[in-house]
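Please describe our next protein:
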Amino acid sequence: MSESIIEKVFFPKLMSYETYKERKSGAGQILTGLGKWWGRKPLVYARALLLGILLPASDDIKRDTEIYMKLLGLSERELLKRKNKKLEPIVVYEYMTDEEKADCGAVIEYKTNGSVLHTFKKEVVKRIKDENYSLDTLPAEIAFKYATEEEKKQYFKVHLGLKCNQYELEIFKRLPYDLKLKYCEGLDKVDNLSRETWEDINNYLGTNAYSYQEIVKQLGERRFGHVPTVGDPFCGGGNIPFEAARLGFNVYASDLNPVAMLLTWSALNLLGLPEDKIKKLKAFQERIFKLADKQITEWGIEHNSQGHRANAYLYCTEAVCPDCGWRVPLAPSWIIGKNTRTVAILKENAESKSFDIEIKMNASDEEMEIAKKGTVMRSELKCPHCKNSVPISKIRGDKKDEKGNTIWGLRRWEKHEFVPREDDVFQERLYCIRYEKEYKDENGRIRTERYYKAPDEEDLEREKKVIELLGERFSEWQQKGYIPSDVIEEGYNTSQPIRERGWAYWHQLFNPRQLLLHGLLMELIDKEAKTREERIVGLLGVNRCCNWNSKLCIWDPTKSGGIGHTAQTFYNQALNTLFNYGVRGLKALDESWFFKLNRLFNIEHKVLYTNLLDARILQNYCMVWLTDPPYADAVNYHELSEFFLAWDKKFLKEVFPEWYTDSKRALAIKGSDDQFKLAMTEAFKNIAEHTLEGGYVIIMFTHQSAKVFASLVQILLSAGLRIMNAWSVATETESVGIDEGNYVQSTVAIILKKDSAYKRQKAFLRQLRGIVKNEVEKQIHYMMEVENGLKGNKIFTSADLELAGYYAALRVLTAYDISESEEKMTEFLEDMRSYASSIILPEGFKGLGYDIESIREVWASLNNYEKYYIRGLEFEKEGERKIKLYQDAARGLGILDYDDLLGENRVNRARVKTATEFGMTILETQHGFSNTMLRYILAAINVTQEKIREIGDETTAISIGHEWLKNKLGSEYWHKKLKVEILLRYISNLSILPQWVEDSRIARHLLERVVNDRM
């Protein structure tokens, strides 16, 4: 069987842009609407991997690569087809030639904005100090050139003549790929290619396909003898099986967790239904919601006496200050609506030793400022009466035993309780309601107005009625499974609500109003649903309501246009208790209850098999396994999913009688490194056994722990699979909930192949050093050649190339039987990573004016921290600010403590520190960057800057900085003077970066001193 194209080439950079586009679409992502799952991998990444397995590689790799790009929808023709937005005038102007600007009569003018404009011009003048412009002589064109993107948007106004529209598509073609995507539909929404593109593909491959389903069938039968089955034994939220089915593959999907299987079953079996059945399911959603609305209206628990309806309720926790005895409402902030300027104002009530809460809209600036400061800060109660601060742990009554273990002070709530007892430490209080009323405007049109108010006596009576109504139904609903009755089993995440609030049962994470509303929906589903699909659609709706309507939902005053909105329970992978939270009325739950139901693929004639099963005992055979396994300590799926499982058990038992309905904590792959490694080894040995001969296993892996990553590699080797290649793509964003601890923004896809006939020869690492070096060079040069043949399109970063070299080394090693220790293996691989890095010269080094051999020698002499720092500068020069690139570069160079080198480390705003930002930190320390020549050069720039500020004489300051560098380097200065020159010249060329303008200018002056220095 021939090789697959993905064994040779992939497009990490372009796919990173595409996956980021998909993830940033938020609610627009196709499967997230079905329900919450953690760490879903983008659909476009799964598509790229599966099609890469299907495409055979030929001797004409450049042409193969072009066809692969076309098949993925990455070609210029498909980008033009995906374009669905017009370019902003400012973008058109920036990418026009001078001739085009003249032809269009385009001019650029300052907005007349008084002092703000003056400040802006002043900042630009500072950046271009060496060109001798003043505020009065600064031309608009020059200001535009040196302005930041934000300044351009705020302070410039572009006037283009009518002719500019004729350049729209031409200028779109000139945009860098990531900017093009801003004006395009996401690749995950593309279900077919243009006919012209299919004809290009067919002419090359000898196929006759005009859809993904047809190409999968034809290539599958040609390569494997049948349409391949794609399996995912850790299917989670179902993204991989869904995309495989949508492309036309047969699908097997399994998971240990019943909530994961519910989501996967739904993706495969609901979104492929015929339109008439989907229409009936939508009608079912409407019917249940209308019946719930009717019942709530009859109960009279959301409407006031004026007929206005509440859509949001704000609650806060109250506790007694131990220092003064006053009962204090707790909240980190009292701002309710940012744009409506709505705040809560605490008023002392001496008679009751408590606080009345006034709600005020259109608050003054002073009142808004006061409201920013709440009564809880950094886990301390800030008493507004006595002004003392008390740790929340003290209020809870937490203590330490003789061994130093914490004994949690709160009592555990009992099963029948759904409100706090009067003697509980924490009470709950309704302090604000948002109502909406309808009225007719002067044109007779119906308008809606929302307003906030403090609860009055009528509102509090309605609160009592909610508790009474729930109390009447509570036991019956628990018995029938309409509301949870399960105890919360203690664990890493699940112990948090127990120790912080005393909530011992899952229903206690919801207040009475939420339990009544969700329980009513469950009761109506049970009575009205006639088919399995209706029950599942109803259950998915309730799960979504629970995620967006629990006592763990933050009230965010900036959302919904600044009027305020509740966030979801799982804004990260934890069960975080809150001091104040928002509750949605039924009308505000419509966006949770109603989720998108569309026919996205045809399930007819497809083999779709789902199973609730441990990967260690699966029995199904697949040609391709593509999976995103658990990552040791990354996400506790088994614990977090119990939040939903507590609500789901009734219907799951009825709809899937063969399924179990617990999270199988004991079997979940988790825990310490040894436990993780043992469980994963068993799972992947079983997966390898159930891979058809010549088939593939692709593992997606998202983790930054070198130890966990090394364990995974050992696991895969023990499974008897051979690593063919690996590719890293940015898959996470700042908003997906996995953004702290050991989680990274990139995912490595490791491509493995089953070849039982391949016999591994015994070898020692020392024997393989030359072979591995050759393979590393071959891989890197091959990727460079591919890129050069693609009309100048840059599809690989230096980090991509370095990592490719590292994985090329793995590819060789897994072809041999090597019995040496893991420590020696790790050391060998790190050497090969360094070797890969030495091959790839940064672009900024190539044009410094020195002979290439000297440049290569200097680059090879740098340690990995110096190389990492320069790689970071290269990313920034290319406009690449994604933290994923910096993480990949660190992984490729084998360094861990790179955070000290970063000036910014946000997901899409990463960069290394400037010389000035470094100051004199991490000098003469144990850090790997500390005593390097590059670090000393940066410090010398900083010394010069400090002396300029101190004495005001730039010439003297430069002399002092130069002497400091010479003294620091000692005899090394003269022995490696050329290296000092090259590094200084490189830094002096960084003035194109705004924050480097001054430091690069100083570097130029220091360079002159070094060049002219003689012994």
